[in-house]
Amino acid sequence: PSLCISLSTSLSFFSLCVSLRSLSLSVLSNQASLSVSPDRSQFFEYGSVSLSCEVQGNSAGWRVVRNSERGILSECNTDWGKQQGSSCNVLLIPSDSGVYWCESGSGEHSNAVNITVHVGAVILESPALPVTERDSVTLRCRYQETTSDLTAVFYKDGTFIRTETTGEMTIPAVSKSDEGLYKCYNSKGDSPESWMTVTAPSPVLSISLPRRLCSLLVGSPYL
C-alpha cells in the first residue's frame, strides 16, 4: 500500500506516492479504552456512572469488568450494572468501589480506572481518566448536603496545598509533577484520596522523505 500526495499549480499537476511498508505506526488493532461519564473517581452512595468500552476495530466480545474492594472479579450485567448498548450504567452503592476496565474474550484489556463510592458527607471531584500535560484541571470539593460555607482545604500526597473559599482548585496547566494523591477537607468532613494521572501529549505522526526526493520537489520549476 502507498500514501499519495497530490500537488497542483496553475501550470501542472504533480503526484507523489510513498510506500507505507517502510512506515511504522504505534496503533494496535482492537485497542480499547474505558470511558467514564461523568469523568470522576469519587461518587456519593446512590450516585450513577456510565462506563463504556471504546474499541478501535472490531468491538465484538468486549465487556466492562471489575475487581471490587472485596476481591470479587465480575462483569457488568451480572450482579451489578445494567448493559445498555455499548455502555454499562451503574447505580452505585459502597460495594461497587473497585477497579474497572474493559476486557475481550481473548484476554486483552484496556486502561483501568479506580472508582470509590463514599458514604460520608464530602467527596473530591477529580478526573478518573488521565489528564494531558498543559491541560487545565479543576478539582472540586463537593458536599452531599447544601452548605453556605464552601471553603475547602486541598492536599496532595498528604501535604497541604492551599485553601479555596469557592471549594474549587484549578491547575491552569498541569505537569507531571502534579500527578499524585489528592483529597479535600471542609467543615463537613474530609474526602477519600484519589490518584490523578498526568500523561504526555500524544506524538504527531510525521513522514520523512528521502533528501534527494525533497531536493527534486523543491527544485521543480512548477512548485
UniProtKB/TrEMBL annotation:
Q: Which Pfam families match?
A: Ig_2
Give the signal sequence positions.
1-19
PROSITE patterns linked to this entry: IG_LIKE (PS50835)
Which Gene3D superfamilies does the record associate with it? Immunoglobulins
Ranges for domain Ig-like: 32-199
Cite the entry's keywords alphabetically: Disulfide bond, Signal
Supply the SUPFAM superfamilies for this chain.
Immunoglobulin (SSF48726)
Q: Name one GO molecular function term.
A: transmembrane signaling receptor activity
Gene Ontology CC terms, in alphabetical order: external side of plasma membrane
One record GO biological process: cell surface receptor signaling pathway
Q: What protein name does the entry list?
A: Ig-like domain-containing protein
* Organism encoding this protein: Salmo trutta (Brown trout)
Q: What is the lineage of its organism?
A: Eukaryota, Metazoa, Chordata, Craniata, Vertebrata
